[in-house]
């Protein structure tokens, strides 16, 4: 802000006289961007594994083995272990790469063997012992070989994973929509039966040489023995080569459609031990199957890191810590996914936990996480900061000076005073307008789809629902099941917008489940468990929704036609409705949507209520516990799963009361924390150790400008003075394109990403040089002009302008800077206008802090 005050004093940029605006606007905009922390900020550093120095391992006092023993089921089974050393300090280190494994005796050597990667292989049925030596210490573990029979190679469980691990069915290779060089496989192996027949039928079956399996194209190409655009994928004699050779030798049999694929993955260790940069951690992946069997699938799993700049993950699953931070190790195997959270603490010498007040379970659970990562919470913000923050969040408007003064003067105990304020704001018309607008965005309330009458009626229904705090489950149920005249029963308009099965499937899952289902339309989701079958099964619930013209112009009647099916694009057959998790009510209901709604809003649905509390949390804290909020998946884990579960439990027990959760969040210490940071939390962006400044959204900003300046907004075809939050339609134009420039969504998708909260040079130029702000500041009928008519003192002007714009009085340093502006102005009015213009252009106004 001080930079803006200096710039204003030097150049005297003010909208009324338009003095030097154009000539200096770009420079002033650049200063604004710097003050916002946007311009000139360095990009994220890329991780360089070679630059990360290995951690020096101290003297080890004991060894630990995970798993503590191994069981090999058959002649082809293989398993490995993780070796961990514990130092005298209690710190643990992964010693797996340094460990030497050997049979404990000559008899044990007859039972098992160990390869150069540390995998144990069976040689004879029975029990044996393996000795482990590392860092001067020694321990052992037991191995049981149950059978030396070698079952036939499974195409589903053994061959398909090799194709996936090798990248053969990736989107950049044969898994692309058109295949590669005339040969196509299903993307990431989502259809084993298709892939088997593609392999068998390709080049008239010449991909396999049954008389001399080693000369099969399936082996010669990936080993580079014949030209292969994919290069060398594996080498002769490798485990993948050996298994494929055996499969071909056995006659390339398929068990697709008979053998079940992996049901879930177990990743060891569940909590990787990489607390310091340079530390490494071996990973083991166990596949758990529906028949109760398990296999070590580490060799064929695919590993990635969500944040390589924090932690690298090698192709074999070894984690290497790079710098302090949190990341997730993402594990994919045959369409099944798992994630483990990685926490790199870094050097926290001198850290000591300092307790802050805990007002609710939110604070307790956040504090537990902060202690785990050795961070401290910032203190609670002052009353002036809180009153502006909570006004903007709940009503979309800042407090007026009299409201701020009344709150600051209230001598009630702080938490009780703030609770009273929250309850008051939750009962205001402005709260209803704010959250009506939010839901209108998410539900795509748009005359483009509904016409003006339908748009108005749908929005008015939302307004009534918000005003009466309709329970969230009932709100969503009404949207899913509404039938009849859409003008008389407005929630029926939702399925007028999402009027085909694909749009309904994708909009409903993204908005109400927080899941992006669209990728499963053409194939199984490449990074999640959702399948193409599930996509069309879900769509089948909406297949019998009918539409007919209503009595009034633009009206439609939504009804259950009782006919209509979704056809699967692969089979051409009708798909029966089914939900992706759990089961629907078995009652024979007339309308499929009733069955679906019962499942959707159930407290047992693992996504419905969690997605909503996560979304609400993001509105008040700047990011979701899972972020983005509408991209919930295994590979995007919650940063604080215990907090998410507690909020979800509270929400369900409250009867899906949205106001209740808002109240709990806004009265938590976590919400009330200051934006000020310390050395113990300045690097934290995800664990809610301090408040994060959030740029006002388009409607908030425009309404705040008009409220602060005491001027009326003008929108085409709407009453003068209507707030931007009250605009019913997405297509309404107004002003100088201000709302569009600052990210107002077009209401064409339910994605939160449709609303932009970015900061741009164009926005800065608009604020500095555009008519919206300058005209409001200089308005002869505005708040400032009216105040100046009372002939206030210079200090009174400073106090009033700061209280109006920032909801607080100026600091001594700010007063000194502001006084210079006033003294340098030709008139008191110009000085006051320049001061207000500068404050309105500062981050302290443009951001909710």
Proportion of beta-strand residues: 5-15%
Biggest sheet architecture? 4 strands, mixed
Number of helices: 31
Mean pLDDT: 91
Q: What does the overall shape look like?
A: globular
Number of strands: 25
Distance linking N and C termini: 14 Å
Low-confidence stretches: 1-46
Q: If you had to describe this structure to a student in words, what would you say it looks like?
A:
This protein is α+β, with helices and mostly antiparallel strands and 849 residues long. It has 31 helices and 25 strands. The strands form nine sheets. A four-stranded mixed sheet has the order 2-9-8-5. Strands 1-3-4 form a three-stranded antiparallel sheet, with no helix packed on it. Strand 12 and strand 13 (294-296) form a beta hairpin. Helix 8 (361-372) runs antiparallel to helix 20, helix 19 packs parallel to helix 21 (658-666) and helix 29 crosses helix 30. The longest helix has 21 residues, at 447-467. The radius of gyration is 32 Å and the shape is globular.
């Amino acid at each position: 802000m001080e930079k803006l005050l200096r710039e204003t004093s030097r150049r005297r940029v003010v909208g009324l006289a338009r003095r030097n605006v154009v000539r200096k606007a770009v420079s002033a905009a650049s200063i604004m961007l710097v003050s916002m922390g946007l311009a000139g900020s360095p990009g994220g550093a890329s991780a360089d594994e070679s630059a990360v120095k290995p951690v020096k391992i101290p003297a080890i006092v004991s060894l630990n083995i995970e798993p503590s023993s191994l069981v090999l089921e058959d002649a082809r089974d293989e398993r490995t272990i993780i070796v961990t050393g514990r130092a005298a300090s209690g710190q643990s280190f992964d010693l797996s790469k340094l460990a030497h494994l050997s049979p404990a005796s000559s008899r044990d050597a007859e039972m098992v063997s160990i390869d150069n990667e540390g995998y144990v292989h069976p040689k004879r049925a029975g029990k044996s012992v393996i000795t482990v030596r590392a860092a001067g210490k020694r321990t052992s573990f037991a191995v049981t070989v149950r059978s030396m029979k070698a079952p036939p190679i499974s195409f589903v469980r053994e061959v398909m994973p090799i194709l996936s691990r090798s990248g053969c069915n990736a989107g950049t290779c044969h898994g692309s929509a058109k295949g590669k060089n005339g040969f196509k496989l299903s993307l990431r192996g989502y259809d084993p039966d298709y892939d088997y027949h593609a392999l068998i039928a390709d080049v008239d079956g010449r991909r396999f040489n049954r008389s001399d399996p080693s000369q099969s194209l399936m082996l010669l190409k990936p080993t580079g023995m014949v030209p292969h655009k994919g290069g060398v994928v594996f080498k002769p004699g490798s485990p993948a080569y050996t298994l494929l050779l055996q499969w071909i030798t056995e006659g390339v049999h398929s068990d697709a459609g008979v053998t079940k694929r992996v049901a879930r993955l177990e990743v060891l260790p569940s909590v990787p031990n990489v607390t310091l940069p340079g530390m490494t951690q071996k990973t083991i992946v166990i596949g758990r199957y529906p028949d109760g069997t398990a296999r070590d699938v580490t060799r064929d799993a695919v590993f990635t890191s969500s944040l390589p700049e924090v932690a690298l993950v090698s192709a074999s699953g070894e984690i290497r810590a790079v710098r302090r931070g949190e990341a997730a190790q993402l594990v994919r195997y045959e369409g099944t996914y798992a994630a483990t959270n990685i926490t790199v603490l870094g050097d926290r010498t001198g850290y000591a936990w300092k307790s802050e007040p805990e007002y609710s379970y939110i604070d307790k659970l956040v504090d537990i996480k902060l202690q785990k990562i050795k961070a401290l919470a910032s203190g609670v913000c002052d009353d002036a900061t809180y009153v502006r923050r909570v006004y903007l969040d709940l009503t979309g408007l800042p407090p007026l000076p009299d409201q701020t003064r009344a709150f600051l003067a209230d001598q009630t105990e702080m938490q009780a005073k703030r609770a009273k304020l929250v309850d008051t704001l939750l009962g205001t018309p402005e709260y209803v307008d704010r959250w009506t607008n939010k839901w209108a965005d998410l539900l795509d309330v748009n005359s483009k789809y509904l016409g003006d009458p339908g748009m108005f009626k749908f929005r008015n229904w939302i307004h009534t629902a918000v005003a009466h705090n309709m329970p969230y489950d009932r709100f969503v149920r009404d949207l899913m099941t509404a039938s009849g005249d859409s003008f008389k029963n407005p929630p029926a308009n939702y399925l007028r917008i999402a009027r085909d099965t694909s749009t309904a499937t994708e909009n409903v899952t993204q908005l109400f489940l927080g899941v992006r289902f669209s990728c499963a339309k053409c194939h199984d989701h490449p990074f999640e468990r959702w399948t193409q079958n599930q996509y069309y099964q879900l769509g089948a619930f909406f297949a019998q929704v009918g539409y007919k013209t209503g009595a009034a112009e633009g009206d439609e009647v939504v009804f259950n036609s009782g006919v209509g099916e979704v056809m699967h694009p692969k089979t051409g057959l009708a798909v029966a409705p089914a939900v992706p998790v759990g089961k629907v009510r078995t009652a024979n209901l007339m309308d499929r949507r009733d069955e679906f709604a019962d499942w959707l809003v159930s407290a047992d649905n693992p996504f419905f209520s969690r997605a909503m509390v996560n979304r609400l949390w993001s509105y008040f804290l700047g990011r979701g516990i899972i972020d983005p909020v509408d991209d919930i998946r295994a590979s995007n884990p919650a940063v604080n799963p215990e907090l998410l579960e507690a909020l979800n439990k509270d929400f369900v027990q409250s009867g899906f009361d949205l106001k209740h959760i808002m109240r709990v969040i806004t009265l938590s210490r976590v919400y009330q924390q200051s934006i000020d940071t310390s050395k113990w939390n300045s690097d934290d962006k995800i664990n809610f150790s301090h408040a994060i400044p959030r740029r006002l959204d388009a409607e908030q900003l425009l309404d705040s400008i008009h409220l602060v300046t005491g001027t009326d907004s003008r929108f085409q075809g709407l009453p003068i003075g209507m707030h931007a939050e009250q605009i019913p339609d997405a297509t309404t134009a107004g002003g100088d394109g201000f709302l569009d420039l600052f990210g107002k969504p077009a209401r064409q998708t339910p994605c939160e990403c449709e609303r932009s909260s970015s900061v741009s040079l164009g926005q800065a130029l608009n604020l500095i040089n555009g008519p919206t702000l300058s005209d409001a500041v200089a308005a002869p009928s505005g708040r400032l002009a009216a105040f100046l008519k009372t002939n206030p003192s210079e200090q009174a002007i400073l106090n009033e302008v700061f209280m109006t714009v920032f909801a607080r009085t100026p600091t001594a340093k700010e007063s000194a800077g502001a006084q210079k502006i006033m003294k340098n102005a030709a008139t008191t009015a110009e000085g006051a206008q320049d001061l207000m213009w500068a404050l309105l252009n500062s981050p302290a106004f443009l951001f909710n802090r």
